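Sequence, please.
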């Protein structure tokens, strides 16, 4: 059995900052992906070739079809939990979540509205410190709205932890988080996340919004970067 088959329901934490307004959904099944699930590049097949990244990727970790199927599942769960009169406000944290939020919004069977934030976390190129600066703030007031932070990946959890605290001070009715990917072994700060698509290993992943030096965001799948590209 591969990791794509081994799903378990998420615990459903309470919605942040709300007074019991939203009944918990049945939850979303987070799919556990291991390195053994990766489809390795070989002499006969290179997943980067048709995207101009010939010889740069070691494997496909999550194929495009698996991503899209999971996004549909996440979107249905979010819609099932939506009991508010106004549409959920999707907050995309630039840049990595751009691909995810556009597919997620289109998969939602209810209307939604979009907002963007850009933040910069101080730290090294590969790990954040938890000290975050806002580069681009929201364009509007979120008072009384159900806010859904749409994140591509939770690594240490430091960015999300900071963002949750920051947004909570602005008076939303609720804040939920939808994360496509999470690296459980890298998490330094536990954040209650209601909807998580895939738990993945700590390997160097790129694609579907995730970059290395701004490259590879345009890939339609999540892949493993060849070690020779960053070592
Ligand atoms: C990535 C990702 C998350 C954050 C997660 O963004 O999009 O926002 O890191 O890391 P953490 O859990 O360790 O805080 P990044 O800062 O690389 O910027 P980008 O989205 O523009 O690539």
């Amino acid at each position: 059995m591969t990791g794509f088959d081994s799903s378990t329901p998420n615990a459903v934490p309470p919605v942040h900052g709300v007074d019991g307004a939203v009944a918990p959904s049945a939850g979303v099944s987070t799919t556990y992906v291991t390195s053994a699930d990766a489809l390795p590049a070989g002499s006969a097949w290179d997943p980067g070739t048709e995207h101009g990244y010939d010889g740069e990727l070691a494997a496909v970790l999550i194929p495009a079809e698996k991503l899209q199927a999971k996004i549909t599942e996440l979107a249905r769960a979010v819609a099932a939990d939506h009991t508010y009169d106004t549409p959920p406000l999707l907050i995309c944290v630039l840049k990595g979540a751009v691909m995810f939020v556009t597919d997620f919004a289109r998969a939602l069977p209810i209307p939604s509205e979009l907002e963007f934030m850009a933040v910069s976390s101080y730290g090294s190129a590969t790990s954040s410190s938890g000290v975050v600066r806002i580069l681009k703030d929201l364009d509007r007031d979120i008072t009384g709205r159900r806010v859904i932070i749409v994140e591509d990946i939770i690594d240490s959890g430091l960015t999300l932890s900071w963002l949750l605290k920051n947004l909570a001070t602005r008076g939303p009715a609720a804040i939920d988080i939808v994360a496509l990917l999470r690296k459980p072994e890298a998490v330094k700060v536990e954040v209650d996340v209601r909807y998580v698509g895939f738990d993945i290993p700590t390997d160097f992943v790129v694609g579907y919004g995730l970059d290395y030096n701004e490259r590879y965001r345009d890939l339609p799948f999540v892949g493993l970067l060849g070690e020779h590209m960053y070592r």
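The mean pLDDT is 88.
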